[in-house]
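We close this part of the discussion by returning to an individual protein. Part of our work consisted of pairing the sequence of a single chain with a tokenised description of its backbone. The amino acid sequence and the backbone structure tokens for this protein are reproduced below.
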Amino acid sequence: MLDTRKGRRRTTPSTRRRYRRRGQVGIVIGLTILVLLSLGPYVFMLGTSVKDNLQFATSYWLPTWPLHLGNYATAWRQISPYLLTSLLVAAAAIVGILLLSAVAGFVLARYSFPGRRFLFAMIAALMMVPSISSLIPLFVMMRNLGLLNTYAVLIIPHVAGGVVLGTILMKTFVEGIPQALFDAARTDGAGGVRMFTSIMLPLSMPVIGTVALVTVNGVWNDFFWPLLTITKDEYRTVSVGLLFFHGQSGTDYGPMFAGYTLASLPLLVLFVLLSKHFLAGVQGGLPGSH
């Protein structure tokens, strides 16, 4: 409709609704394309994991019949030791990171002492240091300490790197807990340890879950550091073990992709189960979220 007084077109409510619907359709189409592009490699991986070499050569993209589910048994026999190693490393890294970052975050958030802000600024500044810049010095240090080909060489770097983000998230989350809770506990005679174990830890479960999930994801996907520091097969994690699986299997693509599928299942299950807590922890642990 044309507004003659001002010489310009005036939109009606029905026109605005039509424009909004068009915009929503465009957003849905764009998101659908992104989802399809993201899921494409996983669909291809699942389809290839139940093929033999002949089916893989003749039907590269399309599913085929019969399904060779025995590929998963072959893959499991190959990668199960690597999965166990990754679980052990992830569990140890989670315990170390949570212990250090929870204590550091609590102290930085609830205690005043000289240099507190400077100390936190230095911790936050470590987030801007590229991990690749410390790769060679860290390798030389581990070699001089005699830690190559041990579990310690896999665990210590993850703890040292993960405690930075963990401390930032913990401190910000604890700052959002009402101070009245700590004041009431202190009035009742609770000390720092009691407030930490009875107030801070129970209320910080969302951010604890976030830190744990981020740590598992980092351990599971770490490839270059285990490849550089581990030469004994019994200490290889699943990411490196899959590389050697490929070399041992040659062109046997079915078991190889079945191994990729099995290796991705633990992270998928964890994220599906903990996604709500993960998002709550991230939102509660970011500056300005409270």
